Amino acid sequence: MARVLTPRAEDFPRWYQDLIAKAQLADNGPVRGTMVIRPVGYAIWERMQADMDARIKEAGVQNAYFPLFIPESYLRREADHVEGFSPELAVVTHAGGKELAEPLVVRPTSETVIGEFMAKWVDSYRDLPLLLNQWANVVRWELRPRTFLRTTEFLWQEGHTAHATEADAREHARDVHKNVYQAFMEELLAVPVVPGRKTKGERFAGATNTMTVEAMMGDTKALQMGTSHELGQNFAKAFDITYSSAAGSVEHAWTTSWGTSTRMMGGLIMVHGDDNGLRLPPRLAPIQVQVMVVKAGEGVTEAAAKLRDELKAAGVRVKLDDRADVPFGRRAVDAELQGVPIRVEVGPRDLAAGNVTVARRIDGSKSPIPIGDIVGAVTSALKADQQRLFDDALAFREERTVDVKTLGDAIEAAQTGWARVPWSAVGDAGEKEANGKAVTVRCLTRADGGMPDSDEEPNLIAYLARSY
Amino acid sequence: MARVLTPRAEDFPRWYQDLIAKAQLADNGPVRGTMVIRPVGYAIWERMQADMDARIKEAGVQNAYFPLFIPESYLRREADHVEGFSPELAVVTHAGGKELAEPLVVRPTSETVIGEFMAKWVDSYRDLPLLLNQWANVVRWELRPRTFLRTTEFLWQEGHTAHATEADAREHARDVHKNVYQAFMEELLAVPVVPGRKTKGERFAGATNTMTVEAMMGDTKALQMGTSHELGQNFAKAFDITYSSAAGSVEHAWTTSWGTSTRMMGGLIMVHGDDNGLRLPPRLAPIQVQVMVVKAGEGVTEAAAKLRDELKAAGVRVKLDDRADVPFGRRAVDAELQGVPIRVEVGPRDLAAGNVTVARRIDGSKSPIPIGDIVGAVTSALKADQQRLFDDALAFREERTVDVKTLGDAIEAAQTGWARVPWSAVGDAGEKEANGKAVTVRCLTRADGGMPDSDEEPNLIAYLARSY
């Protein structure tokens, strides 16, 4: 077969950009670092959104919408926050033909403006917890942009919650992290993740604790797929989010925030993509099955349309491709590039024998199936292939994750995979040393994989890797 | 009952703002003219989005996402467009800690940036029509902001399409206007609209034709609920959107654009709201039925939970309100304010007699219903009340729309309703005169209500009204 993309093994970053362009997922925008998400890519993002949104609502969180423009003074109220975000801000200085009295920041994240309104809406302990989420665009000026992974503007959801106690805030953040984020990534995206705690140096600006879910990409680098933050009382104090307790005293609330973004699109590509293009997990795929007319005539189009109807009736997301004027080979290559999990190819010869060909993108198999068995064959293949993608990604990660005892060994192992090393063998100084060699501490976990309450706990494990 | 809102008849604009605040639909944002859409309001907007989005997809249009920031130079390429939008632009001049070489405009609409990419993606007539839509936030600096109706930032969908011929572009724009917009507003929002053509003076900046759907608000003013534009070859020429025809010649495409926004939330409130709050059309309502525990004990909570389950199983969007510690009267007032179509009130006395009370928000009725009949009673009431809201709004508009023969009579009639007058009795000069008296030509239609091909057609009817 002709080479469609730069092979992954030859040049992974170029393979990634090739795939995005050839599969028509996205284009670079006119302003450096911005992107256009094309219909093929956006359809995937819409399915991510719908599934994530249902999980967020299931967790008792309500959606709302807060303004894009934030007065510059708001950001200054939380010292760590403004220090962390200042270098990345885009600023509106003129509007309506005039210079503004106070410049407006285009939101890089919304803790500040949402904090302002939480303060307004919360009076009593009865108003807590207040659980909000918004789907929005945010802007962070990027010096080294890369499509989906790091763009000046990106789409995301940001959850923001306020609680009466630290324990309640912590429990909520952990619940979302595990039951929304980790479950979403593993069940829908078929991407296995390691949940853990960030070190102080990697924390969100203004947080007291940042939790992450980390995934291994096809080049063994790590990608942070989502984060959940405990914000302590930092924002509650900066924005005066107080409530009267049952006992009548006035207390500051405890807040959290958590976010996932179009960056997950990049992770999806780099975990599941191969030299022929994207491979979409069936549960995520906007089109699960493409029924293709190989060649028109001899009842082929009619048989293909009938199969489409049967699959649709069985709840499969199916598309009929009867563009007989476009060469079949080109259509098949495009379907592979875009990651359609199953192609059902209907041609005159097979059809005469009562068969059609089922081509599975995920395991690469291609076999004739009696036309009457298609619905059963397709639905069980979709289920098996969802699991297979996950299993393969997990096996890939496990094969490339090694347990070591020293910082030196960890940095070395991180050149070709992930290293698990006792956090006591790294520490703040070791983290700095690793960073100097382009290796970062991705997260800390307990020895049993559990989430630490603090980075001071004994016997913690650190994951070290190169990363995006 | 205690007065909850300023009565509509006393001060309509104040009633509107009161309702938005008391029903917790939205708040003013920190930057003048911006708004925060609160969970109660956002849940309504989400349902609008979902329904509109399905209709847009049904029309063959694909979603995509284009950048928020547009190079200032893009806007200048289409002369009318830049002239129309310049006074309303917000401009980013600094980003990443530096002054930008070229200022960036925060999109007021996306014809320009989408035109740039259409030019890139369209090669041949086979690539046409190209039918795109995006859900996004846009910014237009407003001097006289009003929540939902005119805000500096608002949420909307903007469709952008490119076609090989003027006829195809026109047919598409009309199809969306009638089968997406008008159908959505009448079927989902229960808001009757008059579709028509805007005069030259009221056209979108850069369009060759703007079509509108106009609705009469509760104070008899008109609100433009959505618009669809034929853009001729204006943007195709400015952005060089060309295609090679079947005959091999290179041609400019014909483009359209069409949009609806959170402004529809304002229309919904002003069409259906009354002195007790919002009245939501059942098909739109996020919560169709609130099952309320009037007083706990004697099996009331259990009976209410069972009713909730039965209604849910019947496909009704239902919420159980068992907050027995909050006075029943307050909960009922809140449900009325937020427009919940039906309350099923479960109290010990009724329950002992085998009944519950069904309170219908739309016709104000309240009656005891045997508990075994609830599912049937509720589902038929939801259906009837959807129709009733539409019928009432249509009757209201028809009673307040008069046919007159002269401009003077039209301007007079427009003080208390809408005037239908021959366009020949108005003309450009008459339009200017009317505008001087705060009356505008909302749209032109044919005598039979049909959509004119041009404002030069004979026997056109003009609708004159005061407007938002």
UniProtKB/TrEMBL annotation, chains A, B:
<keyword id="KW-0436">Ligase</keyword>
<keyword id="KW-0648">Protein biosynthesis</keyword>
<feature type="domain" description="Aminoacyl-transfer RNA synthetases class-II family profile">
    <location>
        <begin position="32"/>
        <end position="281"/>
    </location>
</feature>
<dbReference type="InterPro" id="IPR006195">
    <property type="entry name" value="aa-tRNA-synth_II"/>
</dbReference>
<keyword id="KW-0547">Nucleotide-binding</keyword>
<dbReference type="InterPro" id="IPR045864">
    <property type="entry name" value="aa-tRNA-synth_II/BPL/LPL"/>
</dbReference>
<dbReference type="InterPro" id="IPR036621">
    <property type="entry name" value="Anticodon-bd_dom_sf"/>
</dbReference>
<keyword id="KW-0067">ATP-binding</keyword>
<comment type="subunit">
    <text>Homodimer.</text>
</comment>
<dbReference type="Pfam" id="PF00587">
    <property type="entry name" value="tRNA-synt_2b"/>
</dbReference>
<dbReference type="InterPro" id="IPR002314">
    <property type="entry name" value="aa-tRNA-synt_IIb"/>
</dbReference>
<dbReference type="InterPro" id="IPR004154">
    <property type="entry name" value="Anticodon-bd"/>
</dbReference>
<keyword id="KW-0963">Cytoplasm</keyword>
<keyword id="KW-0030">Aminoacyl-tRNA synthetase</keyword>
<comment type="similarity">
    <text>Belongs to the class-II aminoacyl-tRNA synthetase family. ProS type 3 subfamily.</text>
</comment>
<dbReference type="Pfam" id="PF03129">
    <property type="entry name" value="HGTP_anticodon"/>
</dbReference>
<dbReference type="InterPro" id="IPR002316">
    <property type="entry name" value="Pro-tRNA-ligase_IIa"/>
</dbReference>
<comment type="function">
    <text>Catalyzes the attachment of proline to tRNA(Pro) in a two-step reaction: proline is first activated by ATP to form Pro-AMP and then transferred to the acceptor end of tRNA(Pro).</text>
</comment>
<dbReference type="InterPro" id="IPR004499">
    <property type="entry name" value="Pro-tRNA-ligase_IIa_arc-type"/>
</dbReference>
<protein>
    <recommendedName>
        <fullName>Proline--tRNA ligase</fullName>
        <ecNumber>6.1.1.15</ecNumber>
    </recommendedName>
</protein>
<dbReference type="GO" id="GO:0004827">
    <property type="term" value="F:proline-tRNA ligase activity"/>
</dbReference>
<dbReference type="InterPro" id="IPR033721">
    <property type="entry name" value="ProRS_core_arch_euk"/>
</dbReference>
